[in-house]
Amino acid sequence: MRIAVEGCCHDELEIIYDVLEHIQHVEDTKIDLLLMCGDFEATRNPDDLMCMAVPAKYRDMKYFYKYYKGEKKAPILTIVIGGNHEASNYMQELPYGGWLAPNIYYLGYAGIVNVGGLRIGGISGIYKGCDYHKGHFEKPPYTDSAMRSCYHTRSLEVFRLKQVYKDVDIMLSHDWPLHAVQAGNKEQLCRYKPHFRDEIMQNTLGSPAAQEVLTHIKPKYWFSAHLHCKYSAVIKHRGKGEDKITKFLALDKCLPKRSFLQVLDLPSSMEPPYKIQLDAEWLVILKNTNHLLNITDSARYMPGVGCKERYDFKVKDAEITKLLEDFGGDLTLPENFQITAQPYDGTSDKRKGRQPMCRVNPQTTLLCQMLGITDPFAVFCGQSNEENPEEINIDSETSDGTQDTSEPEDAGTTTAESDVETVSQESLSVDDSMHDTTSSEQFPTFMHSQSIDENFLHDEASSSNCVEQSTPSRDSCAMDTTKSDQSPIKLSPMMLPSPKVGFDSSCNELSDVPNIQIRKRCSDDGPSKPSSMDVGLDNAGKISNDPVKKFKRRNLAVYSILTNEKTEDSESEPT
């Protein structure tokens, strides 16, 4: 089975398919499958552009809308994951995966499918610690922070992937696993990307979430993108009974003379044409862990060793047999793509888009009905029998992982509102690798399996850059969220303190007395005289000569400083 792997797409679909067609023509071969490692940018119309977290100058309708509306069809079966530059409103319609366009399949937040006898998995987004334990609370129209937090990887997807015990052949992620860089030629990478050096030396370049999945699943191949460079490594895992290796390869974005594409041959147990089949083990995991789904912006820690709640969801053969019966013995993915938004007409102004409201996708509805799981967008739109996210108590599960259906003691208490804005202040910067160049010897544009990077495919016995990783125990510490029997707490939007009447809003400095905030109370007769008991006065009752430092004002009506100079009478009016 001949598989092509591409790095960051950035909606250059037409170019990528043209390159693959050229390879097939020159080598007189057929490529059976294309895998894309994120930043796919599935923009259907200008409204989708407004949901993509990029500077305005990079919002452009390129090629995807043509494949979406049927003007063109992907010539190769394509599987993609999400990155950090996506039309997030469309991706969120398909949280468990689905067809983005005919012959283009999205794996969802995380997922595993079977193609030609190969198990292919992926995890979308990038890691951001402040959002890792939150739920998938975001929905369009987005706030600026929600537009970014919605593509941050969540602990729920990592927890689900860590319940997979059957062998996986290929894993996809957008950002690199945390320790992958340590297994390759770090010096070469530092020469090509000098600004990575500090993170490499501190071992912080990459995703801790993806590293957890890599350590647990130990796939044969792991492909990533995100950092806009090609990098290969061979990672050795030390386990009980046998040793395994993972061949890691990161690829660039689709630009001329850049290493954005790799083609390789893998053995297949089936004959073409190849179809995507749902994975039975993964479907059972989705079904068994549905109660852990959180669609609020509150933190929800996954269960682990030591808590009363069930934490091991290893799938049993009987569960797979039951699932196959429910699906009629056939897990072949139906080609049930449907247009859910008006596609771009190719002529209207791209800059006049508006963020749409959330929509329910029929593909997600069908899968949720088959498995009995929750569609977050259906809940947000009021089209689901599930509880409203404003009424969900994430601590109301019983110890066996099932929902507690008993009435809360305080029925009048409401829970966290899903519309509360997150405090994430991640700044978006354009990757400065857009202007870097490399020689074709070090970073070839594309390579087929016969000339694939030597460090990527060298034999385990000759590996000189392998990193040995011991298999850690399962989650050894996790917060038990079942112990609290309190009713949900109502959250309110963050508010600054109200100005206090009687304080002078014209003062904007604070005295440099340790841990003391000295205020000046005003009245109609002017500021009051300092007393000898005021902190910051010397023995003579005068203001000390300690230096005064500037204080960034957050509320002018609160912070002020005592001065030794006479000030004019002033009246403070609250704002």
Description:
The protein has helices at 13-27, 46-49, 64-68, 88-91, 144-149, 155-161, 186-192, 197-201, 208-217, 280-288, 317-326, 362-371, 376-380, 454-457, and strands at 2-6, 33-36, 77-80, 98-101, 104-106, 110-115, 118-123, 170-173, 221-224, 231-238, 243-250, 261-265, 276-278, 446-447, 467-470, 509-511, 548-550. With 575 residues, it is an alpha/beta fold. Residues 387-575 have low confidence and may be disordered.
Total DSSP E strands:
17
- What's the total helix number? 14
Estimated helix fraction:
10-25%
> What Rg, in angstroms, do the CA atoms define?
28 Å
Distance N to C terminus = 69 Å
Q: Summarize the main sheet.
A: 8 strands, mixed
Query: Strand pairing plus helix content: what structural class?
Result: alpha/beta
User: How are the strands of the biggest sheet laid out side by side?
Assistant: 13-6-7-8-9-11-10-15
How would you state the average pLDDT, rounded?
77
Q: What form results from the Cα inertia axes?
A: globular
- What is the beta-strand fraction? 5-15%
> Which parts are unreliable, with pLDDT below 50 for 5 consecutive residues or more?
387-575
Task: Please provide a brief summary of the model.
This protein has 575 residues and is an alpha/beta fold. It has helices at 13-27, 46-49, 64-68, 88-91, 144-149, 155-161, 186-192, 197-201, 208-217, 280-288, 317-326, 362-371, 376-380, 454-457; strands spanning 2-6, 33-36, 77-80, 98-101, 104-106, 110-115, 118-123, 170-173, 221-224, 231-238, 243-250, 261-265, 276-278, 446-447, 467-470, 509-511, 548-550.
